[in-house]
UniProtKB/TrEMBL annotation:
Entry keywords, A to Z: Membrane, Sugar transport, Transmembrane, Transmembrane helix, Transport
Identification of the protein by name: Major facilitator superfamily (MFS) profile domain-containing protein
Similarity comment: family membership: Belongs to the major facilitator superfamily. Organophosphate:Pi antiporter (OPA) (TC 2.A.1.4) family.
UniProt main location, coarse: membrane
The species this protein was found in: Acacia crassicarpa
Amino acid sequence: MTSPGSLFVARSPPPGFLIISGRRWRIKTYRYIVLLVTFVAYVCYHASRKPTGIVKSVLYPEPNGQITHHKPWPLGEVFVKDRGIARMNESEGWAPFNEHDGTSKLGEIDVAFLACYSVGMYVAGHLGDKLDLRLFLTTGMIGSGVFVGLFGMGYFWEIHAFSYFLIMQMIAGLFQATGWPSVVAVIGNWFGKRKRGLIMGVWNAHTSVGNISGSLLAVGVLKYGWGWSFIVPGALIIFGGLLVFLFLAAYPEDVGFTATQGSDSDLLAEISPDEEAQLTREEMMSDVASVRSLSGASVRTTSVGLLEACYIPGVIPFSLCLFFAKLVAYTFLYWLPFYLSQTEIGGEYVSVESAGNLSTLFDVGGIFGGILAGYISDKLKARATTAASFMYAAIPAMLLYRIYGSISMNVNIALMMVTGLLVNGPYALITTAVSADLGTHSSLRGDSRALATVTAIIDGTGSVGAALGPLLTGFLSTMGWNSVFVMLSLGASIAGLLLSRLVIAEVAERSRKPEPASIGQKNPGAAASQPLLSRDR
């Protein structure tokens, strides 16, 4: 490990780089590789979480009325009406989930996973700041794949004990907790604050791409038995773990560069490719040291504690906001396929397969939501205002979807994608750009690496809400889906209100007349780049 106060420590590159090339590439090339590998890694994470939402209607086949048939809409066999495909034993379901309290048990399965995920997040974030992120992430991905696969093996082993499925989900949740703090910390190690919202908004599409991939994989093999819907995504994340082990350079030092965190990354971003190619380690260290001397900061790589990280301005309000934002987002993640299979659309019901395919369009909207939220927050330099605005706009979108989504398939899809855009936008923004901003906040004075710890606090708190939403849905759905959408609207409104103080601070900051830049000041806008995060405690 790096000792406190050290600026550069020689590290070995990932083994995959030694196999495919013996030379060092430009830093921009490594950044592209880091973006790609971490993107694929978290696609695998989210793909492995999707099967439980897909198989709910198979495990608990609640009658949904008379099914009729007509020409498939709109892409051939993608969205088809119920033909009995993949409904083997669906009339009986799968014990113990096919009993009268089946939806409650399914909700408990979700909350078991997410509760362990949220608890594990706090521990994983702190460990991520101490351990090698590449090995830590690899271990988490392989462990996740094993226990997701074991959940599916319950089908082949004909296991009907509720405790078995509960335990498999709990252990899988602990392993899954390694993912998010690690990938955000890796991105923060390689990228500074310049256009961080847009870059991370595009990069965060992995969440929706993973949900879509997981849905399509689970649905594609569902006709062979619901167990395959878990085994295939489990195998995928194991493969992703091997990819991370071979090709993820978690730190710039791994491939011969100095740390590019915070202002260092901005400095390197200003270097042309030709100049960069000529830079030696010593020259880069000299440049980095000069930037740090200007800011009066010293560098250490020791991690901060959880309590210390909580005192960073903005961590608590964004954590609480994410609690309710993820409550809303994860309710859609785990229950939307089930809702679609139990709700008339244009006077008809869709099959389990079709419901799974149709639900992916929510995540298509989410991709655009994350990118749009990141772009707007960069332009306005107002993370809290952007997140709160999206949450408020999501309230009428969800209510309109509930009221008018049953009119026709076209209306359902349009409203679903708009809802996905508005729900996933702030969720993506807070878990990526905001977490990275706070993990490199100026109050740390450059003396600690807090990225994984801060990310764990924010996303761990959000994951408690993510556990609560699906659990409440399991109970509220028995009283009617209107109750569920009221809960979701209430959660979105509270999420927006929790950012009110930061929104006011951002508006006040923007209303101030900018002061003229002093002579020799290289980046006059840097101090105002994040007004909400630089307020006094």
